[in-house]
Amino acid sequence: MEPACMVDPTTLHSQLIAHAASLKEQSLQSLFDSDPQRVATLILEAAGLVLDVSKQRIDQRALELMIARFEALEVDFAINEMFSGALINRTEGRAVLHTALRDHNSVGDAETKSAIAQSQRASDTLANQIRSAERTGATGRPLRAIVHIGIGGSDLGPRLMADALRYFRDPRMTLRFVANVDPADINDALHGLDPETTLVVMVSKSFGTQETLLNANVAREWLASALGPEAAGKHMVAVSANTEAARAYGIAPEAILGFGDYIGGRFSLWSAVSFSLSVAFGPEVMARLRAGAAMLDHHFRSAPPSQNIVWLKAITDIWNRNYLGYSTRAVVPYAKALALLPQYLQQLEMESNGKSCKADGTALDMRTAAVVWGAEGSNAQHAFFQHLHQSPDVTPVDLIGVMKDRENNPHSTQVLQANMLAQAQALMLGQQDSMDRHRHFSGDRPSTLLFVEDLDPEALGALIALHEHKVYLEALYWGINAFDQFGVELGKQLAKHTLSSLQSEDEATGAHHDPSTQWHLGRLRSARGSA
Ligand code: F6P
């Protein structure tokens, strides 16, 4: 057979399809039986993470073909382009430099390097001033409650970190998050707080997001009605790439933290977007997070594909999506601290790669991002695991665990870990019962085990960076731009028109909506009238 590396991407794609068809005929157990090296080659460790894809329906040949196709697509060049600051987000004419936030030296351009260092310094200085009470609220009391207002990438990363790094929280600080425009969200967040000791942190890359601006208005009024409009300003910080708009909104210039437009929203947690955490946890915790991510970046760039956890994760997920035809992937963190990981990954993966056209604007002929869904284990075992084990639809599962027990309860931790391992075994081995279909488990259901050695800031940084780079590799495989998100725009525009129809008293205003929407608008108007 011709060496895989000499072949073009289309031929390799056909070879992968053929190989997948033959692998589908084999049980997962037989893949272990036929390859004594399977555990050694399909379990990799890096940057405090252990990745085990040995229970996936994949083998050496599949890995080689996938790596060859990646090479034929010249992904090395594209990876270097990202790290060096080339304008790889071509549809928006932007560089993609979240990696430079973790290692300033990775980017060549001196101006960008110094802008990043300056923005980090400004965020750390302000955080330290608040923590030390050098900067206080309007009445001189220390600011000890942080209300972080933002949505999407301006929310999910910081919120995940706040949960995951629970053991590093400064006990003096209260940290709450508001994302939803549902007024219940901001009301809950402000409930019980003292305006004199509360800092509101508005986070929006664009500074034009409806939900964030509306919630910030409510918070500002809440502050102003207790402290007066002038004093309210001392209790607000804005984080944005659009510092002009933040100034126009009325935030004091010294309370605005900027970052470059080369930081994508869903990749922005490494920037001042996580300022609330710098205040609540301390800037040094954020520095450790970035250091962990930088370690993973180094591994990604230096380890050969077959020994690289990013490559192995990307290959497995692409293989499942494009060659085995699985349209969803469940993510089940066996750690309360990582309960928000599935939501975080939903945005990272689906907003980045849920696309139907290539970066050059031509139509795609491959499926792209799988639907990511999931919830924390072991709770999830009592919710959707029935489906995972016995539904005719097979769903690959990522089971994510933590090795070190930080709760000082070795027994419960071992029960949790045993459950995680047991589920992966049950999914793979199944249980034959030819007499009773109800109790029959087909098995042969693929899963990935991912262990974090210790859930400290470094490991969390590495875990997130692993998924970020996986998303980039997938995008390169599919030929798409992972860094724009035009798909979210239409709904936003229609919401504006729909709001003016809803608010109008004139029934005819909504006539341009479809009949179902018109019906609901009428119903909502009359419910409002009768309230
Ligand atoms: O609606 C999608 C989106 O643009 C995300 O990409 C982004 O993370 C989120 O909205 C919030 O945007 P911003 O930070 O500009 O408020």
Distance between the termini: 75 Å
What overall form do the CA principal axes indicate?
Answer: globular
- Structural class, please? alpha/beta
Helix proportion:
40-55%
Question: What ligands does this structure carry?
Answer: 6-O-phosphono-beta-D-fructofuranose
**Main sheet properties:** 6 strands, mixed
Number of strands: 11
Computed Rg: 25 Å
Mean pLDDT: 96
Strand order of the largest sheet: 1-2-11-10-8-9
Residue stretches low in confidence (pLDDT < 50, at least 5 long) are: none
What does this structure look like?
The structure is a single chain. With 531 residues, this protein is α/β, with parallel strands linked by helices. Helices cover 48% and strands 10% of the residues. Strand 10, helix 18 and strand 11 form a beta-alpha-beta unit. It is globular and about 75 Å long. The model has no long low-confidence stretch (mean pLDDT 96). It binds 6-O-phosphono-beta-D-fructofuranose (F6P). The site of 6-O-phosphono-beta-D-fructofuranose has 14 residues, from loops.
Summarize the structure.
It contains 21 helices and 11 strands. It is α/β, with parallel strands linked by helices and 531 residues long. It binds 6-O-phosphono-beta-D-fructofuranose (F6P).
Protein topology:
Blueprint: H1 9-23, H2 28-34, H3 38-42, E1 43-46, E2 49-52, H4 60-72, H5 75-84, H6 98-102, H7 110-131, E3 145-149, H8 156-164, E4 174-178, H9 183-190, E5 198-203, H10 210-227, H11 229-232, E6 236-240, H12 243-249, E7 256-258, H13 275-281, H14 283-302, H15 309-323, E8 328-334, H16 341-353, E9 371-374, H17 385-390, E10 397-402, H18 410-429, E11 447-452, H19 457-478, H20 489-503, H21 515-530
Helix pairs in contact: 1-4, 4-15, 7-13, 13-14, 14-19, 15-19, 16-19, 20-21
The protein binds 6-O-phosphono-beta-D-fructofuranose.
